[in-house]
Amino acid sequence: MPVRVLIAIDDTDNSVSRGTGEIASLIAEAIEENGWGTAGFISRHQLLVHPDIPYTSHNSTMCFPVEMQQGALAQLISFACDFLGRECADGSDPGLCVAVLEQIAAPAELVAFGRRAKLEVITKSEATELAGRLGVHLSEHGGTGHGVIGALAGVGLRLSGDDGRMRGSLTGVRPGLVLTVRELLEQPDVDAVRGLDGSTLAPEEPVSIGDKPKTVLRGGASVLLVRPPDHPIENVSWETLPRRLLREY
């Protein structure tokens, strides 16, 4: 039976190791290589930065969806647990959350938890209690295990459909190109192209591609946000958001 799964990890790195996003990418690649399912793009979700919260650099969590057969779920979880225990950096406090969307007892509570993690300090015991009650897998894989808080929050924020941005840049588009909205919508990770006010652009509108274009999650869709260019570009009224503005998502 096909199921939709969200997988999130947090606190897998230290200041000199590969980042949590790279670890998530390796897990996603292994899922597809083993034939367990098809992984979607990885989203980065910013959590609260606070003196009482230990983190490496930005306190962000990574999450990605997988479409798979339910019979492979136990293998996937076992692999991810072993992988984190083996590959995470010294001094990290990794956590893993795996949630089957159709089986979450109260999705609204999980979304609310994710949103709270952006605003307030949450205890590990609260995260584990909620995960148990909602029927999602939550496990710690070294150190203090405090990464379970961010992992659970990452699933909640991805589930909300209105938080986070794509990890990495869009494939198939290069800085300096000018592409129409139609051409951008042909990219596998772009569901919509919109202005900052939510407006939809006409299919033939040209868009200038800036450095490291990324989509953001809005309304459950992967949306490429654009704005009028800082400097005039002949016959072009739109450009992708610069990196400094993407940090807000």
TrEMBL record:
This is tRNA(Ile2) 2-agmatinylcytidine synthetase. It comes from the Bacteria.
